[in-house]
Amino acid sequence: MPAVDTGSSKGFCPADAEVPLARVTDLSRLFGSFAALRQVSFDFEAGKCYALLGENGAGKSTLMRILAGLLPPSHGTVRLFGDQSPAEACGRVGYMSHAPMLYDELTATENLRYFAALYPRGQSLTPEAALRQVGLDPALPRTVGKYSQGMRQRASLARVLLAQPELLLLDEPFSNMDATSAHRMVELLAGMRAPGRTIVLTTHQRELALPIANHLLTLREGRLDSVMDGGRAQA
Asked: From 197's CA, which of 2, 23, 93, 161 has a CA 20 to 30 Å away?
């Protein structure tokens, strides 16, 4: 797929595509007079991995928060799983923000037991299963506050995986990681690609996204500037 010009408000939406898992149409978000997003349109297909690229301030995190239902759009629409709003679909969406959202004084297992109790019984992974999915030992007695950045990010990902989300939103999952930890995260995300799960991640490190993403979307000053194939375009 070549890069496409998205100067018009129509953006990139294949005409022959089936109903997408997520459809963003003419989406804008204003903060006072500042436009963080400007008429962004795109269809996210089920079972694919998308990487949102761009410099700081390009609008990546704003778009993720809108998809997660944490921030309303100023203009335009977002529909998930057919015709649900992000708020209506929140039980099917997992969002990992910049902050790990974990308690430093607890172990990873204790953290996840707390969060698992918030879900209906039997509808989430066990804390132990979620931690094993990200390569962490549930029996590790060390508290999260003593984890390396890479381990904290993986524990945060395990928290998000508890609810077995169909749409996984990861905001800067490689943030502040050393090279070894970042590539370990790339391997984990590659293993989580599945027909029933769509992954959308943000990063400014294109080289990390390329091996796992079907499509690379570049935001520039709030606009969708280009869409290109990733390294997994045919997967």
From this structure: 2
Backbone angles phi, psi at 145, to 5 degrees: -60, -20
The structure tokens 């790990």 sit at 100
Beta bridge partners of 95: 169
User: Alpha-carbon distance 209 to 189, whole Å?
Assistant: 10
CB atoms within 10 A of CB 204: 16
Are the beta carbons of 53 and 218 closer than 8 angstroms? yes
Reference 225, options 15, 71, 25, 59; nearest CA is 59
Which residue's entry shows tokens 């998000």?
Answer: 160
Determine the pLDDT at residue 232. Answer: 61
Alpha helices in 162-231 (DSSP H): 179-192, 206-209
Looking at per-residue pLDDT, the higher value among 1 and 191 belongs to 191
pTM of the complete model: 0.87
Nearest to 175 by CA among 97, 230, 106: 97
**C-alpha radius of gyration, the chain, whole number:** 17
Q: Using alpha carbons, select from 43, 34, 49, 128 the residue that is nearest to residue 81.
A: 43
Report the DSSP beta bridge partners of residue 28. 75
**Angle, nearest 10°, between helix axes 179-192 and 149-161?**
20
pLDDT in tens, 32-76: 999 999 999 999 999 999 999 999 999 999 999 999 999 999 999
